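Re: Re: ligand-bound prediction request (bumping)

Still looking for help on this. To restate: I need the protein modeled with pyridoxal-5'-phosphate bound, output as structure tokens. Inputs repeated here so nobody has to scroll up.
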Amino acid sequence: MRFDEAHAREAQHMLNLYPPIRMPMVMARGEGARLWDTEGKEYLDFISGGRAVTSVGHCHPKLVATISQQAGTLIHVSNDFYTEPQLALAARLSTAFGGRCFLCNSGAEANEAAIKLARKHGHKTGGPDKFEIVCALKSFHGRTLATLTATGQPKYQQGNEPLPAGFVHIPYNDVAALRGAISERTCAVLLEPVLGESGVYPATPEFLGAAREECDRVGAALILDEVQTGVGRTGRLFAYQHYALQPDMITLAKGLAGGVPIGAMLARETVAGSFQPGDHASTFGGSALPAAAALAVLDILEEENLVANAAAIGARLAEGLEALRKQYPVITEIRACGLMLAVDLKAPVANRIKLACVARGLLLITVGDSMLRLLPPLVLNEAQAEQGLQILGEVLAAMEAEP
Ligand SMILES: *Cc1c(COP(=O)(O)O)cnc(C)c1O
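Reply:
Sorry for the wait, this slipped through. Here it is.
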């Protein structure tokens, strides 16, 4: 199937939600950091399937073998039963974090679980008025009603009113605003350690440190949304490990099972007990197949030393992009944290650059009109990093020649 036909079928059968972000091809298969479309054209995937999901690359042999093996053994039983993959994954995640684990199917669900646990904990420790959650402007936490309310971007909220009460927004990295927003009514502070969808803005140590301090002062939970930053992407297993602090809860999803839908909420013992049996649940959460896939991803990260690779290749990409910035004045700033990278542009040419890169076989995404974003898989090697930089350089050169 070609793009035109896919586009026509979508127009006929699907809700009209994704056309503005669709790229002009139909993807057929992938291997490592590469994808091929239905016409056989090859692409270097600098976005991990599009949104930082295929963390160990496409169709990693060990992940494929694990999924195939598990699919032929047991795909699903509900949480009426125990399964070994679920318990093994829970052990692995809760040990890595130091707490307990709830498994679900997406980032929004993981955040929803964290919000519910924080509210329950607030009610239990501070009464019915302790329900406020302090979040950041420009954040992204998901598309369910509670998580889009936590998301500090009006465009995701408009038309969905009335929104759930109790979410307060402050500018990201604004310590004074954060301190001013927190009170005895606060049950949680919910933050991304690095703003992802808004374009790779890491939290300052002062900001996260103040969040930790204020949460301790009023007895609120510090929740870090690591849906995008977690599982190695920033060069540490969890991004909060770049900071000298411990959150009370973190949420994971995107890269955790390498492309199989999954989400996880990890909570320290101090707050985890505020969920009683029946307070929360998920039919699919922790099914044998996604749990086995996540275990395989965690094994691959260790066996291939991919967290360190994310740090090293991320640094190399940042350096290469910095060199392009010096050469091409259209680039104004580079931001990077491991394999989360953003390129700020002086003019609204992001989409033009994206499509020119796609034509030359490099996949990246945009934020607004004037920013590019790169989220390569953790398996990206040096040669592939150089190839991607080279293609972007060629596109910038062509654009300079023909503005
Ligand atoms: C993508 C993302 C989410 C939402 O995840 P879904 O799986 O799409 O629900 C939440 N938080 C952050 C930081 C994200 O990047």
